[in-house]
Every structure is written in C-alpha cells, then in structure tokens.
Specification:
The complex is a heterodimer of chains A (190) and B (114). Chain A is an all-alpha fold. Chain A folds into 2 domains: 1-108, Rna Polymerase Sigma Factor, Chain: A, CATH 1.10.1740.10; 109-190, Winged helix-like DNA-binding domain superfamily/Winged helix DNA-binding domain (Arc Repressor Mutant, subunit A), CATH 1.10.10. Chain A contains 8 helices and no strands. In chain A, 36% of the residues are buried. With 114 residues, chain B is mainly α. Chain B has 2 domains: 1-51, no CATH class; 54-114. Chain B is 71% helix and 0% strand. In chain B, helix 1 runs parallel beside helix 3 (33-51) and helix 4 crosses helix 6. Classes of the chains: A mainly alpha (190), B mainly alpha (114). At the A-B interface, helix 2, helix 3, helix 5, helix 6 and helix 8 of A face helix 3, helix 4 and helix 5 of B.
C-alpha cells in the first residue's frame, strides 16, 4: 500500500492525467486513495463520511488538475484539497443539521479503551485513536494536521480560516484533552 | 500543585517536537518528579501522534469506481445529488454502462480521426 510518496514513474502518469487522460487519473486514484482516505478519516472520525470526503476530494482534484503546476508534491496537493473538502462538508452538515449530534462520529473508528490496554506501558495507539475520535472536530482537525501531518501553524490557520493564534490555542486544548483522557485512565486503574 | 508546576505543565503541552522549555522552567523541571512525568507523557503523546502518519487505512473497495463514474458522468462535486448519483452508479454496476459509453466515444473519436 502506498504512503503517498511520489514515485519517479508517477510523473509520466501525472502528465497524462493533466492532459485529460482519465485512465491515467484512475491510476493516480488507485495509488493515492488509501492515503487520502486516511487523512479524511483522521479529520472526520467517521468511515462513511471519510469515504464521501475522499470521493469528492478526488473528483475535485480531477477538475483542478490542469491548474496543478507541480510546485508541491502531488500528494501534498491532494491533502490540501482533502482538508478543504472535509472542512466544507462539515460546515454544510453544521448548516443542515438542527441537531449538532450529527457532527459527532456515528461509526467510531476505534473501539473504546479496554481494561487490559489501560496500563501506562500498554500499547497507546488504540487509546489514542479513541481519544482523537472523542475530540470536537475543531480540536481534532488542528491536532491531526499539526502533530500527525506536520503542517505549520500558518497553513493550518489558512485552511481552517482561523488565525494562527486560534490554531495554537486549539492545538494546546486538543493536546491537553488527549493527555487528560489517556493518563487519567492510567491513574484511574492504578 | 505549586505555581511553578502549573507554569511548567502549561508550557509542556505547548511544546513542539525539538523545542525545549525556557531556562527558568527547565530548572524547575530538573528538580520536580511530577513535572518530569508530565514531560515524559507529553513526549510519548507526540511520538505516538507522529507515528500515526505511517498508519494507512484501507479505503472502501468501491471508491475507485465511484470516482471513475463521477468523472465519466461529469459529476459536479459541489452538487450532493450528483455525487449520490455517482455512488449509486458505482454500487449498482452501472459503471459498466458508463465504461461502455466511454468506449463508444473513444471508438467514435478514433473513427473521426481516421
């Protein structure tokens, strides 16, 4: 499975796709679908919605491809589109849903923490995924983009239409909540 | 918890990878076991979050077909109804029809070129 790195032979496929070759673009979709889906899933914490975000992001990418100049890596460009789509779908859901509960995951990605995983030395990942899912979308987006994907504060702020200060405040809150959730469980069971 | 502990823990949560605390806070940290525990936990959290970058989830099997159908049918991603149409097409196997259309169009293009 690809991790989204650009392979040398991808340049040729990319050039053909930019020229309007749908088969070439489908090849790119096959190569990058899992990477794009993973980012979408981390952002929206819902498998069904992540599938929608991925589909829409890739169709948008096809339409915008002639404008892709190659300044950034293709995968980075796809990531930016994915973040924009995730954010706009979320805003759309916010406008449409009278009940804000619609914005919370209805198909949680990770199972809740099990007692045997609650020890300080136990595998942190399942509990971390669970804690990430439990964050509000605002906080989750920032911590995922900064701490998982390594985006700079400025870029996060631009994509989420917030100030850099707001991005930093959200990151601080998100980390604090993750820590509280992860380590309280440990202290609660010791 | 002392005022110094509060300040140090607040600063720790804001640390990015490779950053260190300001000197006065570092001095407190070196002598406070509770704050050292916080620092270890923060580092662990940051490492684990960064490692998620290498965890790739598997996209739904129908995704490639849905995207291909969306492209062939000229779906507008801003229009939810047309996106749903692409999903239905992919799910019901009508993609075959779309692919057939593409084949016919290509065949017609080939003929017109020839």
């Amino acid at each position: 499975m690809t991790t989204g790195e650009v392979r040398p032979d991808e340049q040729d496929v990319l050039a053909r796709a930019r020229a309007g070759d749908q088969d070439a673009f489908t090849e790119l979709v096959r190569a990058h679908q899992h990477e794009v889906y993973t980012l979408a899933l981390r952002l929206v914490a819902d498998r069904e919605l992540a599938g929608d975000v991925t589909q829409e992001a890739l169709i948008r990418a096809w339409r915008a491809l002639p404008k892709f100049r190659g300044d950034a890596k293709f995968s980075t460009w796809l990531h930016r589109i994915t973040v924009n789509v995730a954010w706009s779908l979320r805003a759309k859901a916010r406008r449409q849903a009278a009940d804000p509960i619609d914005l919370t995951p209805h198909d949680p990605v990770a199972a809740g923490p099990s007692p045997e995983l609650s020890g300080e030395g136990a595998d942190l990942r399942p509990r971390l995924l669970s804690a990430l899912d439990a964050l509000t979308p605002d906080l989750r987006s920032v911590v995922v983009l900064k701490d998982v994907y390594g985006w700079p504060h400025r870029e996060i702020a631009d994509h989420l239409s917030i100030t850099v200060t707001a991005a930093k405040v959200r990151l601080h809150r998100a980390r604090k909540r993750l820590q509280d959730q992860l380590w309280q469980e440990v202290e609660g069971t010791s | 918890m002392s005022v110094a502990c509060n300040a140090v823990r607040l600063a720790i949560v804001g640390l990015d990878v490779g950053e260190v605390l300001p000197a006065p806070l570092e001095t407190h940290l070196s002598s406070c076991l509770r704050c050292q525990v916080e620092m270890v936990r923060h580092s662990k959290l940051e490492r684990e979050l960064a490692s998620l970058r290498n965890v790739v989830e598997t996209a739904p099997p129908s995704l490639v077909d849905s995207v291909a159908a969306g492209i062939v049918l000229g779906i507008d991603p801003e229009d939810e109804a047309s996106l749903n149409l692409a999903r239905v097409v992919a799910a019901t196997g009508a993609l075959v029809a779309a692919a057939g259309t593409v084949a016919v169009v290509r065949w017609m293009r080939t003929r017109s070129v020839a």
